[in-house]
Predict the 3D structure of the following.
Amino acid sequence: MPAILAAIALFPSASVFAQDATPDESSTTAPASASANGPAPASAPAAAPAAAPAAAQAASGQTLAPVVVTASRTAQSVTEALPHTTVVTQEDIVNSQAPDLRSLLRNQAGVEFSTNGGMGTNTSLFMRGANSNQVLIMIDGVRISGVSNGNAQIANILPDQIDHIEVVRGNVSALYGSDAVGGVVQIFTKSGAGQAPAANAQVEYGSNNTRQGTVGYGGQIGATSFNVTGSMYKTDGFSAINAAQWNADNPKSAARGIGPNPGNNPYENKSISGQIKHQFTQDWDAGVATYYSNSQLSYDNAYGKPTDDYRMDSKLYTLSAFVNGKVLPDWTTHFKVAQSEDRSEGTINGLFDSLFSTRTRQFNWQNEYALTPDHTLMFGTDWLQQELASSSYNAPSRNVFSVYGGYEGRIGKHQIQLNGRNDHYSDFGDQGSFYAGYGYYLTSAVKLLASVSNAFRAPTFNELYYPYYGQPNLQPERAKSAEVGVQVETASAGLLRVTAFETRYNDLIVSALQPNGLYLAQNVNKAKVQGIEASWRASLWGTDVGASVTFQNPLDETNNTQLLRRARRHASFDVGRNFGNWRFGGEWLVSSARLDSGSRTLGGYGIVNLNARYNIDKQWFVAARVENLFDKNYQLAYPYNTQGRAGFITLGWRQK
């Protein structure tokens, strides 16, 4: 930790910092002891540790903390979660007017992005310095990452379908298995639970000839809740690659007519989501949930001709059916069967170029048994099958059978979470993981936290089978982590959490040069990330405020250099306030410099985004937002452009 403290001491002033250079869904508003919404248990476990703090909050008049399920696979107040967990609520989504998932999550502590251009382009999410394929992404408890490269189509998941998002930081493979190294992002689609049936619609127009429209209908009638939402998004975009920069850096290639197409790169997305759940008795419910996205993207390639037209047609869907109920008064059980597909088909100048299509099937059976009101056992099994159809190579299907167990308990001021899991892979055998977390309440408002854990990432099919690169005998990447923290929650100051962490990575898979000149995938690299992160949300004198800050040292120990595209310091601050029928808000995002490929340095940046909303009456509203107010020129990856100053206006309607 001395290195962390030294980094904090050297952190420059804000002016310098901003220089150029799970399984189941629960409600985010109900108390932890209330019935969960969407594909969730009919009622929270009788021994849910969050019930007592939630009741205390209600008695004191505080706003009830959101309920989360991702941090422990059971329903609990976000303030009870031992892993550092935050929630992007439906209110946050509406107020932000964010156009995509990256915009929703870029102000989260520990979270960074790199993008290859504008909307819809390849986007990588880094959490606590972990690679993008070391962060587990789920929609309604269903894995969506492609097995070819381990990444998810996060650029094609737009906010119109999202009810809320839970972000859990740190190693939680003991809960979810592979990929949950840097953390987990679980997206919950709209369910309609607890709402009167109503329709809604909105249209948007803005810079880059951007057009967007959404229609939806949902609510609850008796014991049945439902929702269906459809949307379309189209934009002319801007040129993904900075052609002038690339040609200046590569004059010989430019002279031979090799380089990116300087024209704009349009993007189109059509998506729909739906849910229906029926509660048959007080203890049993069942339902189905689905999500579908189809997008067409024009993208740039620096190694083609300036006249080439590269296109990518992508599809992503999830479909799941679930049953939740009580076998006995103290025994709650959950069944889920699901399938997802991640498909991308590329063309060059209208001719077929590539196909990668992952189909994932999964079955989950989870149980919670309440030993006493303060002690709960959790146990279950997961089954996963992944298949790849590719134009580049053939690969066998992967089957994973997993068993897991856990304990959550409260003993006076002490809080404990213990989890263990074993995953048996058909291609490399067994992999075990654990999590041990501890919390101690100094007072009712202040809690100390500590945890140790390990995690792993299974090799992707590209790393195992891609011709002249893949190696079938690869082993999983492994990580060990330890963290300590403090959480402070009061009615006047809101919720603050500060966490110091260290994660060590071994057997990282990289392209290693061989004597014969080939680059082969091998388990040879090591890395270490030390850091301190903080998140804060509060309502002060009628103003909603939030902030996050991350100091980290993401180090590649093989060559003692900074991990690519990860900053040592990044932070955000957002504010919003209602004035009668008006609401005004904004955010400030800052980051220090990052290292990119070829020993290039991407300069630090600071950008400001503004938004406003006016409620015309109880049903109609008009909203507007400005992105990158000061037209900051910055890059998240070389040589790709980012959005300059842009404005958008929205007209919306909600049936009352």
About this structure: The chain is about 10% helix and 55% strand. Confidence is low (pLDDT under 50) at residues 1-62.
